[in-house]
C-alpha cells in the first residue's frame, strides 16, 4: 500500500459562522471539507447543540501542509477574537492523493 502525506485541519466552532467560514476556505483554495455537528464543554461552557445559538460544528479539511497553515493563520486573524473556535493540525497519510 502506497500512501502520501497531507495535513488534516480540524476546526471546531460556532455553527453561526459556518457559511462565512466555508466561503473563506473556498477562497483560500481548499478543495473540499466535511462538516459535522459537534458537542462538548470548554472554557465557554457546555455546547449541547440543543438550539442554534448553542450549536457547534466540526470542519475537517485534508490538504497540503502549506495550505493548512495558511488557513489556520486566516482563522486566527479573522475569527479567534470574536468566536468560540479551536483549530489544530495533524500530519496524516492518505490514499488517492489526487483528491486532496
Offer a quick outline of the entry:
It is built from two helices and six strands. It is an alpha+beta fold and 100 residues long.
Layout: helices, strands, pairs:
Layout: E1 4-14, H1 18-28, E2 34-38, E3 40-42, E4 45-47, E5 56-63, H2 65-78, E6 85-94
Antiparallel strand pairs: 1-5, 1-6, 2-5, 3-4
Query: What is the general shape?
Result: globular
Major sheet characteristics:
4 strands, antiparallel
Low-confidence segments, ≥5 residues, pLDDT <50? none
Order of helices and strands: EHEEEEHE
Report the β-strand fraction as a percent range. 35-45%
Alpha-carbon distance between the two ends: 18 Å
* Range of helix content: 25-40%
Instruction: Count every beta strand, where a strand is a DSSP E run of 2 or more residues.
Output: 6
Rg of Cα set: 14 Å
Give, in spatial order, the strands making up the sheet with the most strands.
Answer: 2-5-1-6
Summing up helix and strand content along with how strands pair, one would put the structural category as alpha+beta
Could you describe the 3D structure shown?
- This protein is of the alpha+beta class and 100 residues long.
- It contains two helices and six strands; from the N terminus they run E-H-E-E-E-E-H-E.
- The strands form two sheets. It has a four-stranded antiparallel β-sheet with strand order 2-5-1-6, covered by helices on one side. A two-stranded antiparallel ribbon has the order 3-4.
- Strand 3 and strand 4 form a beta hairpin.
- The model has no long low-confidence stretch (mean pLDDT 91).
Amino acid at each position: 500500500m502506497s500512501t502520501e502525506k497531507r495535513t488534516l485541519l480540524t476546526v471546531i466552532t460556532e455553527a453561526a459562522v459556518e457559511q462565512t467560514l466555508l466561503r473563506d476556505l473556498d477562497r483560500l483554495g481548499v478543495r473540499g471539507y466535511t462538516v459535522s455537528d459537534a458537542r462538548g464543554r470548554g472554557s465557554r461552557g457546555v455546547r449541547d447543540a440543543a438550539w442554534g445559538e448553542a450549536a457547534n460544528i466540526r470542519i475537517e479539511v485534508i490538504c497540503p501542509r502549506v495550505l493548512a497553515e495558511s488557513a489556520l493563520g486566516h482563522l486566527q486573524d479573522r475569527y479567534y477574537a470574536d468566536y468560540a473556535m479551536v483549530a489544530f493540525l495533524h500530519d496524516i497519510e492518505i490514499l488517492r492523493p489526487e483528491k486532496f
